[in-house]
Amino acid sequence: MLARRFTIVCLITALFGLFFALLVAEAGRSDRHRGIAAPCAFSCSTPRG
User: Fold this and answer.
1) Helices marked H in the chain
2) Are 32 and 38 in contact (CB under 8 A)?
3) Which domain of life is it from (predicted)?
4) Is pLDDT of 49 > 60?
5) Domain residues for 19?
6) In this predicted structure, what is the pLDDT of residue 14?
7) What is the pLDDT of residues 2-46, one digit of tens each?
8) Is 6 contained in some domain?
9) C-alpha distances in angstroms, 36 versus 15, 33, 42, 43, 45?
10) Is 34 helix (H, G, I), strand (E, B) or coil?
11) Is residue 19 part of a domain?
């Protein structure tokens, strides 16, 4: 009985750890890796003098 509870607690802890690691890794990515286009700093429509 105790071994079964320990196994369940270990599995839940492992799932929580994997989920937390996924959140931390996703937060550390830049917009370029997510496929989101960053706005250009220079406008293409302005005339060059």
Assistant:
1) 2-28, 31-34
2) yes
3) Bacteria
4) no
5) 1-27
6) 97
7) 999 999 999 999 999 999 999 988 877 765 555 565 566 666 665
8) yes
9) 28, 8, 18, 18, 22
10) helix
11) yes
pLDDT at 41: 61
Supply the pTM of this predicted model. Answer: 0.52
Domain count, the chain: 1
| C-beta neighbour count of 5 within 10 angstroms | 9
Token duo for residue 45:
């429509």
Q: How far is CA 43 from CA 6, 47, 48, in A?
A: 60, 9, 11
Closest CA to 29 of 41, 38, 39, 40: 38
Is 34 a member of any domain?
A: no
Alpha-carbon span 14 to 8, nearest angstrom: 10
Residue that has been written with the tokens 């302005």 in this structure: 46
Whether residue 4 lies inside any domain: the answer is yes
